[in-house]
Specification:
Blueprint (H helix, E strand, L loop, with lengths): L1 E4 L10 E5 L4 E8 L7 E4 L5 E5 L5 H10 L1 H13 L12 E4 L2 E9 L2 E7 L2 E4 L8 H26 L6 E5 L6 E3 L4 E5 L7 H13 L8 H10 L3 H15 L1
Parallel strand pairs: 1-4, 3-5, 10-12
Antiparallel strand pairs: 2-3, 4-5, 6-7, 7-8, 8-9, 11-12
Helix pairs in contact: 3-4, 4-5, 4-6
Length: 244
C-alpha cells in the first residue's frame, strides 16, 4: 500500500463516488491499472481522492482501502489548506525564493528600462509587463550551473571522494542523483534554497559514493559530514512545492 500527494491533475474521468470524512465527504474516483502493484491513494489538487486498483484487485477492496485511510486524507487536506500557494505567473511585485529568502521582483535597474532586479541580480527582459517566470528561471539555472559544480568539487576534495562529472539539470522530482561512475547531477532549483540546504543536498549525493542506497549506514555517513541535516530536510519538506 502507498500514499502519495500528487500535484499533477488527472485527465481521465471515471465514475465518481464519495469518501466520507469526519465532518464532510469528498469526491473519490477508483481506477483500475493493470501495471499497478498495490492499492494507491492520491489526494488531487481539486480536493478529491483517487484510488488506483492493481491487477487482481477489486473495487470493493479499493473502497475499503480508502476508508481505512481517512485519517491520512484529513491530515493531507489540512496540510494543503495551510500550505502557501506558489504564484503561477511571475510579475513585477511577485515574491520568489532565491538563496532561501523570499525576494520581490522589482522593475528597472538604475532607472533603465528592459531590466528587472531580483535581490542582487539584474536580469535583462524584453517585456517587463509579461510573465517573467521563464526568464528568471533561466537566469537561476545559469547561476546554478556556475556555482554548484565548484561547490561539489570542493566538498569532494575535502572528504577525499572522486567525482568524475557534475551536471546541473532540470529535474522535476529529485533534488539530485549520483551514479556509480561518479557523476553527480543536481537540480538547478537548489539555487533557490538556503546555502545550508544547498550544502546538505550536495553532501547527500556525495555520500552515495560511499553507500549507493538509503540504508542506515548511508544516513550515518550523512550525519557525520552534515550533523544538522535534519534541519535541512525539514526546510525542504516545508518549501519543496513552492520551488517546483
Amino acid at each position: 500500500m502507498q500514499f502519495e500527494f500528487n500535484l499533477n491533475p488527472v485527465k481521465r474521468s471515471p465514475a465518481e463516488e464519495f469518501l466520507a470524512l469526519r465532518e464532510r465527504q469528498i469526491p473519490m474516483v477508483l481506477i483500475r491499472n493493470p501495471r499497478a502493484r498495490r492499492y494507491v491513494l492520491r489526494l488531487l489538487p481539486n480536493g478529491s481522492a483517487r484510488v488506483t486498483i492493481p491487477r487482481g484487485g477489486s473495487i470493493a477492496e479499493g473502497r475499503r482501502f480508502a476508508e481505512r485511510s481517512v485519517a491520512w486524507v484529513e491530515r493531507a487536506l489540512q496540510r494543503a489548506a495551510t500550505r502557501p500557494i506558489r504564484p503561477r505567473v511571475w510579475l513585477i511585485g511577485t515574491e520568489v525564493y532565491f538563496r532561501g529568502e523570499l525576494v520581490r521582483i522589482e522593475g528597472g535597474v538604475n532607472g533603465e528600462s528592459g531590466h528587472i532586479r531580483l535581490g542582487s541580480e539584474a536580469i535583462q527582459v524584453k517585456d517587463m509587463a509579461a510573465d517573467l517566470r521563464r526568464v528568471i528561471e533561466r537566469h537561476f539555472w545559469r547561476l546554478a550551473a556556475r556555482e554548484l559544480p565548484p561547490r561539489v568539487l570542493e566538498f569532494a576534495v575535502f572528504h577525499q571522494l572522486t567525482v568524475s562529472r557534475v551536471t546541473v539539470r532540470n529535474q522535476r522530482s529529485r533534488w539530485g542523483s549520483c551514479s556509480r561512475r561518479g557523476t553527480i547531477s543536481l537540480n538547478w532549483r537548489i539555487i533557490q534554497a538556503p546555502p545550508v540546504v544547498r550544502d546538505y543536498l550536495i553532501l547527500h549525493e556525495l555520500m552515495h559514493l560511499r553507500q549507493m542506497n538509503h540504508s542506515a549506514r548511508f544516513w550515518r555517513e550523512v550525519e557525520r559530514v552534515c550533523p544538522d541535516y535534519q534541519t535541512a530536510e525539514h526546510w525542504l519538506k516545508q518549501h519543496s512545492e513552492l520551488l517546483r
